[in-house]
């Protein structure tokens, strides 16, 4: 009897991710935004006023990396930092009118790429695949929490 662990799927997932990124980047280059910058801009557009640490959590990125992305977005005129009225040490992040101007175009690029790469795939098939990938992701995230104590004990010993 075959088991799920007998199917090597990691390389395929990686290939799909790399190809999707390559095609997205080719189409989005005219806007001067990297994929990471686009993700941050889109998140801030839909959740104005996040702190950098909150944005990092939503994007599942390290705060320092998000800081560099925000620095570049701010320099390019897509994002602005405003003082947090409740905490003088903190900043809140907001998109600018310039960012709003490219949001629809970037959404259209993403939509068209999804449409093209899912040709011949039904909604039900993709939905089921997404459910499976979500469970795999959750299993991998659970490994982070279950492995952490063992690693810290090993370092102490």
From TrEMBL:
The entry's keywords: DNA-binding, Transcription, Transcription regulation
Please give the Gene3D superfamilies that the UniProt record associates with this protein.
Winged helix-like DNA-binding domain superfamily/Winged helix DNA-binding domain
Q: Which Pfam families match?
A: MarR
Domain HTH marR-type, which positions? 6-138
This protein's superkingdom? Answer: Bacteria
Coiled-coil regions, chain positions: none
User: Would you tell me the protein name for this molecule?
Assistant: MarR family transcriptional regulator
